Amino acid sequence: MIKAAEKHGVKLLLTLADGRSHCGHSDGAKGGDGSGKRPDWYANGFRDQYLPHVTQMTSTYKDSPAIGMWEIINEPGDAEWQTIKLFFDEVAAEMKKNDPNHLVSTGSWAPWAYDGDANFQTLHESPNIDVGSVHEYDYDHENSNTIESPHFAGALRAMNNLNKVLIVGETAIESGGSCRTDRQARVSAMKQKFDLYLNKGAGAVLVWNLAQSSTGCGFTFPVTDPLLDMIKTYPLNLNATNPRTGGTQPAVVPTVPPISDDFGPLRVSDNMRYLVRSDGTPFFWMGDTAWSLFTGLTREDPVYYLQTRKNQSYNVIQAVAIFPQAGGSGNSHYDISP
Asked: Cα–Cα–Cα angle for 201, 284, 170, nearest 5°?
């Protein structure tokens, strides 16, 4: 899969674990919906299977131009924030020891999950952590039509204090079927979110969740949805504000590099505003989420998928390296274990 991404000039954001019950062990934390990993996993259990997996992945692919960013874990929670910080610190240090070439993101949820903005900042203090994230679905919360998540400003301020990048790692609006928001209204609202987040200083905004098709009311949108057209054309008119200087930056136009193009690992720009290529040119993050890309597929499937996404102007694919679904083994189509 990673070799196919290299061939097609696609950057991968690889999430190496999922805090929301998709990795098959240590799930069932009390409180909430009961799906999160138990606190003992964040304290010690992660060293049994997860940390060796991190070591293997980051050592093996440290020189791969397809790696855009490593993500420690998707939506960590269900433990004391101090415990999660120690977990972040140890894992990020292991990642950077093995792979100093690529960015490390925490996959964080939002400040509310860690008892506030100050703790969110402390979570990201490690010099081995480059990027924090906010996941927000606030537009549909209590039918509020919220454009700016109430958690964004505090998270951005925390990351700015650390001179690090914040991305909106997930955002979505329900539409389709019997939803209260029709597809064109979703396009308009999502564009407002892009305008607000990018102009206030977010390094990227990722929309959940593109699929080949979708039915009924939900967050998923198909390739024929007008939302995809907005995402593909939006950056052409973007003038982003630098949150530290108040000045504007030139538009960042997404380009799909030729298949032979190798522009090296991503890094944070000197002005802390952009993700940039190794030559310092801005890298516009246009991502799709394909959690189970490494499981259940033939060798031909990812080639078709990556070529399709490349043709649609995507340059980042976020996937979970080990993704055993609901009691499954997580093995590949050929029954090969991760």
From this structure: 65
Copy the structure tokens of residue 328.
């499954």
Tokens of 168: 């909106």
Instruction: State the pTM of this model.
Output: 0.73
Alpha-carbon distance 78 to 72, whole Å?
16
Q: For the chain, where are the E strands, in sequence order?
A: 11-15, 67-71, 103-105, 131-136, 165-171, 205-207, 210-211, 221-222, 240-241, 248-249, 267-268, 275-276, 287-289, 316-320
Cis amide prior to 209 (ω within 30 degrees): yes
User: What secondary structure does DSSP assign to 93-116, as a single string?
Assistant: HHHHHH-TTSEEE-----GGGGTS
pLDDT in tens, 13-22: 999 998 876 5
pLDDT digits (tens, 9 = 90+) for 52-83: 999 999 999 999 999 999 999 999 998 999 99
| Token representation of residue 269 | 């720009």
